[in-house]
Amino acid sequence: MITTSAQYQIINTNLARTKALIEKDAVVKRETDYYLANIKNVKTIDEFIKNDRLFKYAMKAYGLEDMAYGKALIKKLLTEGITDKKSMANKMSNPLYKEFATAFDFAGKGPEATAEASATTEAVQRYVQITLETNEGEKNQGIQLALYFKRKAPTIKTTMGLLADKAVLKFVQTTFGIPEGASKADLDVQVRNLEKHLDVKDLQDPKKVDKLIQRFTAMWDMNNSTPETMSPILSLFGQTNDGAPGIGVDLMMSISKLRLGGM
Length: 263
Description:
Blueprint: H1 4-13, H2 15-24, H3 26-38, H4 45-50, H5 52-61, H6 71-80, H7 88-91, H8 95-103, H9 106-109, H10 121-137, H11 141-152, H12 159-164, H13 166-176, H14 187-197, H15 206-223, H16 249-257
């Protein structure tokens, strides 16, 4: 059975080709063509939200697909914008909401908001990337988490940023063997604990990020069942399998070599 590490390397090595195949997928191409043909014609928040097809595409592109039903919340988010420090986008713990409000900045740019790259070409690129992550996650959550972390790591500047993103936090907890129960501790205790394991400055170094992913994939295979029995991607932010298969000597040796002290 191919390991999570090996599968991740295959995907990462052939990333451009894999994305090109996703772009050509009939469903993806149809939705993308419709999105690009119509998004620039949207001039107001109400028009944006009322066009369910455009709205759902945009929400998926920015990682908020599961919140597409919350149109009242998103309308308030976009109406308040990102300039006021007290706005919803700046107060919500999940950074994805601020990313979305920044990408579709109707409050700051008005009718021109949907002409920005963040609302057009960048949204499409994100949609394809998230489709890739979702597809892989349906087969192996570890691959999805690794791809997600690779994408998000450079945007994380503080330890609080690690805590704010549940998927990133799970990646870090898995990588360093931190029990999920640690998340129940006081916030300052959680911050200190994470800082013992990881310097967030390392996330700006691609080589160190790759090293973290190597360690994560080895730990993932050690702690989880085979890809066929892993829970689907929808459970990513919930519970993972408790089953732990036998650990081979080769896997243990691989993990022992993945030390971050030399990062």
